[in-house]
Specification:
The protein has three helices and six strands, in the order ααββαββββ. It has about 130 residues and is α+β, with helices and mostly antiparallel strands.
Length: about 130
């Protein structure tokens, strides 16, 4: 397996869990724990509106958004590996979202991952920007 595939797999796995949470398919406490498990203790996120969150803030945000987007489907395209080695990766991607309410604004994202000595991949940073054009 190439250095970058483990990071792409982590991205895909997380988005499946996030989609289930936001769509309301599974909003149990265990589902929230599973959603946050791949995020490092030092995780930071910059939202589309510029707000910044640490891991605790990210947990609170997701807790408040459980089931907020019924019927949500997330699709990624233009996934690029900017850097990847045995312990880190930087990925960018275009994220399209569609919910029962219709098409939601697309966003471009940059994600940073770290892999520990045991091979566990964790998100360390995410920045999202709405696409307006």
């Amino acid at each position: 397996m190439s250095d970058h595939q483990v990071y792409l797999d982590a991205l895909d796995a997380s988005l499946v869990v996030i989609e289930r949470w936001l769509s309301g398919t599974d909003t149990s406490p265990a589902a929230l724990d599973a959603l946050l498990a791949p995020f490092s203790a030092e995780f930071t996120m910059i939202m589309t509106d510029g707000r910044a969150f640490d891991r605790d803030g990210t947990r609170a945000l997701f807790a408040a958004l459980g089931g907020a987007k019924p019927g949500l489907r997330i699709a990624l395209s233009d996934v690029r590996v900017l850097l990847a080695d045995a312990s880190h990766a930087v990925l960018t991607y275009l994220e399209a979202q569609r919910a029962a309410s219709g098409e939601l604004p697309a966003r471009r994202a940059t994600a940073v991952f770290a892999r520990d000595a045991a091979g566990v991949v964790r998100w360390t940073h995410l920045q999202e920007t709405f696409c307006t054009a």
